[in-house]
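In this section we walk through a basic example: taking a raw amino acid sequence and producing a predicted 3D structure, encoded as discrete structure tokens. The instruction is simple. Fold the sequence below.
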Amino acid sequence: MSKKTRILVTGGAGYIGSHTVKLLEEKGFEVVVYDNLSNGHEEAVLNSRFVKGDILERAKLDDLLTEIEFDAVIHFAAFIEVGESVKKPLEFFNNNVSGTLNLLSLLKKHGVKKFVFSSTAAVYGNPDKTPIEEDFDLKPINPYGNTKLTVEKVLGDMSVAGDINYIALRYFNASGADESGLIGESHNPETHLIPLVLKTAKGERDSIKIFGTDYPTKDGTCIRDYIHVNDLANAHVLALNYLLDGGVSDVFNCGYGVGYSVREIIDTAKKVTGVDFKVEEAERREGDPAVLVADNEKIKRVLGWQPVHNDIEFIIKTAWNWEKNKRF
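The resulting token sequence is shown next.
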């Protein structure tokens, strides 16, 4: 890949964005990160140019797109906290939808047609069966999922009109950290299970709660598909190369097709950390499906993606290494 292939990464100072940027750098791309740092960290951008800005700041984005002729955009910038989206739907639609429309209109103006979109398994809502395939009904059950589905629909219509070629990647549960220990997951507040469990092991929390122990699963707790963040980053690079090589618009699930229960995550974390921390059982949370696991055959077939880190112990080890030595 030519070093002159220029990629704009919005939200590239965030968790998944920073791991993708690191991989893009290693692959020889020229990367510019655009992030308002509402959820990201400038220290997570290791070598690329960083521009502080919001996707709603039209003039600033326009200036950047005028200054640099980008070959493609990877769009991560979004609010992601599901519970918060229920409390603040307008803010989520303003940022995730209006901000993305602002970006897309400027990309059309500047003739940038290759677009990789950070979507989510939340677009499926509570599916009737699992593993989940890309052509399942899209029925989000929260505003966050609604915002991502809205953008997917816009992208679909723009693609038909010939304005853009896009790949939407529907993530399952991103987890783990780069083995270098330089970057990892750092949200405030933290809502994801693995870092919350590890913060409990570290003594930053008194206990970890299991919400619901009576699900129709092997041990009564919810099952989720955890994908290592570097395998997810690789999916973005493969999607980008696919579009640069003339690939057509499409959507792909990003997961391993294997699920782990909440109890299995906790037990593995105790093994990895050597800490026997306190676990509490609580009532189910509303809207938590029993099992969410991806069917990943399509991304393997079309993009040639192959999981490398499909090992829950490895995932938790990398997350623990980061949690003990966090840089930001």
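Looking at the output, two observations stand out. The first strand starts at residue 6 and ends at 10. DSSP finds ten helices and 14 strands in the chain. In the next section we compare this with other chains.
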